[in-house]
Amino acid sequence: MTDNPLAHPGAAHPDLREQMISNLVRIFYARARRDEVIGPIFEAAVEDWEDHITRITDFWSNVMLRTGRYEGRPMRPHLILPLTAAHFDRWLELFEATAHEICPPDIAWAFIIRARRIADSFEMARASQRGEVAGPRHSVR
Q1: Cα 71 to the center of its chain, rounded Å
Q2: What average pLDDT does the chain have?
Q3: 98: closest CA among 126, 56, 41, 69?
Q4: Is the predicted pLDDT of residue 17 greater than 70, yes or no?
Q5: In this structure, are residues 123 and 134 in contact, taking their beta carbons and an 8 Å threshold?
Q6: Measuring CA to CA, how many Å separate 88 from each of 33, 39, 78, 136?
Q7: What Cα–Cα distance (Å) separates residue 90 from each residue in 47, 62, 95, 117?
Q8: How far apart are CA 64 and CA 114, in angstroms?
Q9: Domains detected in the chain
Q10: What ranges in 80-133 are assigned the alpha helix state H?
Q11: What is the percent of the chain with per-residue pLDDT over 90, rounded to a whole number?
């Protein structure tokens, strides 16, 4: 098993800046909203896109730079959505492609490691909610 980068204090990468996080989030969600697989889920769940983008930017700032800006419970909203493995796979596919496009390779990889672990955490929680046991699918590849 790989070392858990989420357990380390400090920024995920010394060259990562807020503007890169903001660009990644905005471009990713513009693509996600148009996507045939995950777009309908987002469009049904998100009422105020500017607020959502701000909250998710704060979330990623907290994850990547440890800013403490995000105050929320990201798991809860995902537990009530009609998500399947295909939705998580597509979310990661789009997110990873956007990270590779926006970020230098080592920073993209820092985002991807964390995104995969987050996707696994959400999927395992959803399985547990259904009384099932699931292992990680994404962070182990």
Answers
A1: 16
A2: 90
A3: 56
A4: yes
A5: yes
A6: 14, 12, 11, 12
A7: 22, 23, 8, 15
A8: 8
A9: 14-129 (1.10.490.10)
A10: 85-102, 105-129
A11: 66
* C-beta of residue 19 within 8 angstroms of C-beta of residue 72: no
Q: What is the pLDDT of residues 96-122, one digit of tens each?
A: 999 999 999 999 999 999 999 999 998
With contact defined as beta carbons under 8 Å apart, do 87 and 37 qualify? yes
Is the pLDDT at 73 greater than 60? The verdict is yes
Give, as one character, the DSSP assignment of residue 66: -
* CA–CA separation, 113 and 93 (whole Å): 13
| pLDDT surpasses 50 at 54 | yes
Q: How many Å apart are CA 134 and CA 70, to the nearest integer?
A: 28
- Cβ atoms of residues 29 and 53 within 8 Å: yes
Pairwise CA distance, residues 13 & 34, whole Å:
30
Q: Return all residues near 134 (Cβ < 8 A) that are at least 6 apart.
A: 123, 124, 126, 127, 128
pLDDT surpasses 70 at 23: yes
- Would you state the pLDDT for residue 8? 66
